[in-house]
Amino acid sequence: MSANSLQSYAPLLIHLIAAMLLSGALLLASVLVGWRRPNRAKQEPYECGVPPSGDAREPFSVKFYLVAMVFILFDVEAIFLYPWAYIFRDLRWFGFVEMMMYIAILLVGYIYLWKKGALDWNR
């Protein structure tokens, strides 16, 4: 790498150093200035304003994990659609057929989950 190309990274390096210094200074200030008055209410786990009940290691339903995986799957699909739409004119029919196959695979997975009842929360 030439010296000129390394100089183009100088603002990024300065930004990262400034971010680290600022975050360290804020953490240090909170340790030095912050009040430390622990009590029983502050030491309890917080669960969305609801008093915690039962064991923390209680197993979740498998449906929770299936819905989480479907959510991630469709997020990844949306991530792939943006660059595809950007270069759609360059890809022409190949890109169109390729994306239709991708969406068909996702649709098969969605129909499988639907048939298995993974999306039915009333059962």
Q: How is the secondary structure organized here?
A:
Elements: H1 3-7, H2 10-33, H3 40-43, H4 62-86, H5 88-116
- Work out the radius of gyration: 25 Å
What are the segments in which pLDDT stays under 50 over at least 5 consecutive residues?
none
Contiguous helical run count: 5
Mean pLDDT over the full residue set: 84
- Which structural class should the secondary elements be placed in? mainly alpha
Q: What is the level-2 CATH architecture name?
A: Up-down Bundle
Instruction: Report the CATH topology name.
Output: Methane Monooxygenase Hydroxylase, Chain G, domain 1
Order of helices and strands: HHHHH
**Bulk shape:** flat
Biggest beta sheet attributes: none
**Beginning-to-end CA distance, first to last residue:** 62 Å
CATH superfamily: NADH:ubiquinone/plastoquinone oxidoreductase, chain 3
Strand content: under 5%
What is the class in the CATH system?
A: Mainly Alpha
Q: Please, how many domains?
A: 1
- Quantity of strands, as a count: 0
Query: Which bin fits the share of residues in helices?
Result: over 70%
